[in-house]
Amino acid sequence: MTLNFAVRFLTPVALFICCVSAPAQQPPQPTTDSSPQGQIPAAPVHPPVTGSQRTQIWRQSRISTYMDDFGELARYHAANATLEPAKPGENRVVFFGDSITDGWHLMEYFPDRPYINRGISGQTTSQMLVRSREDVIDLQPKAVIILAGTNDIAGNTGPMSLEEIEANYTTIAELARLHNIKVIYCSVLPVHQYTERASDMFTQRPPEKIVALNRWLRDYCSDPAHGCTYLDYFSAMIDDKGYMKKELADDGLHPNAAGYKVMAPLADDAIQKVVSQKVVAGESN
After folding, report:
1. Where do the H-state alpha helices sit in the chain?
2. Considering Cα of 59, then 61, then 63, then 65, what sign does the dihedral take?
3. Which residues pair with 229 in a beta bridge?
4. DSSP per-residue codes, 134-177
5. Alpha-carbon distance 75 to 86, whole Å?
6. E strand or H helix that includes residue 264
7. Domains in the chain, CATH or no CATH each
8. Taking Cα atoms as reference points, which of 135, 169, 147 lies closest to residue 100?
9. How far apart are CA 244 and CA 32, in angstroms?
């Protein structure tokens, strides 16, 4: 085969191969885009999440808890199992409550006191009633200081009437009294709406319901037959409008450091008075 013949024969073959393989080597075609050339399309705009939507999202996140461990007994199971028995003469006190108690770093405010924190965020009195034995009675405290009710008003575990909340308060106190544990019932804290973060907290907790529940608590504790002490945080934390003082809670409900500084001496004073009381013969507590 001569050189000229080879060139004439191979050239058409080479051109055919190039034509077949060319599409795989071409750059991808630009996609249709209505935005101006060179600009990145704007991200889709979503409407802001409303307070009711946030509440619904939170409720959905709690379904597994309510179905599998309503009282959340698992939270302090290990801590309770390793807790040593109270020493003779020790004035052990359990702080029993919801997120306001849960977020209270007791050692910072009561460094020399045998106080035990058994608060669980989001809980209502219905859940606290379920765990009264494991997280209070079995720990054999001298007293229990109970701060609850605000989540009941908000309906965290479903709508609750004031009468239903009061019934839970009564049962928790009766159980404690049967085991010679003195009960300190704290007033429900006020709320405010002075910040953007506070809007949901305030809407879910009408101040008039807080006042009504506190009135019942005060009256219940004033009856000597119930053997309970009333601790009034509410009066120390409200402003001239009857709302939580703005500087005491950033989100309108949960005390910040300034809020806990108001509460701590009131709590300690009430506790010291209660644990120093002598049991009179014939009394159940």
Report:
1. 3-25, 51-61, 63-68, 77-82, 99-102, 106-109, 125-130, 132-135, 150-154, 162-178, 199-204, 207-222, 234-237, 257-275
2. negative
3. 184
4. HHTGGG--SEEEEE--HHHHHTBTB---HHHHHHHHHHHHHHHH
5. 21
6. helix 257-275
7. 51-82+93-275 (3.40.50.1110)
8. 147
9. 57
Supply 251's token pair.
């989100």
Question: Which two structure tokens, joined as six digits, stand for 31?
Answer: 């996609």
Alpha-carbon span 141 to 90, nearest angstrom: 9
Pairwise pLDDT comparison (89 vs 264), residue with the higher score? 264
Q: Which residues of 140-177 are buried (b: 16+ CB within 10 A; e: fewer)?
A: ebbbbbbbbbbbbbbebbeebeeeebbebbeebbebbb
Tokens 């529940």, located at residue:
213
Contact present, 243 and 190 (Cβ < 8 Å): yes
- 239: exposed, middle or buried (Cβ count in 10 Å: 0-12, 13-18, 19+): middle
Q: What is the pLDDT of residues 200-238, one digit of tens each?
A: 888 899 999 999 999 999 999 999 999 999 999 999 999
Q: Which pLDDT value is given to residue 199?
A: 84
Bridge partners of 266, per DSSP, are: none
- Residue pair 127/120 in contact (Cβ under 8 Å)? The answer is yes
Separation of alpha carbons 127 and 183, rounded Å: 18
Q: Report whether pLDDT(279) > 70.
A: no
pLDDT at 201: 85
Question: Which H or E run includes 228?
Answer: strand 228-231
**Tokens (6 digits) for 259:** 């809020």
Contact 107, 130 (CB under 8 A): no
Question: pLDDT tens digit string along 153-178?
Answer: 999 999 999 999 999 999 999 999 99
**Structural contact between residues 149 and 188, judged by C-beta atoms closer than 8 angstroms:** yes
Q: Give the Å distances, CA to CA, from 194 to 74, 154, 205, 248.
A: 36, 19, 14, 11
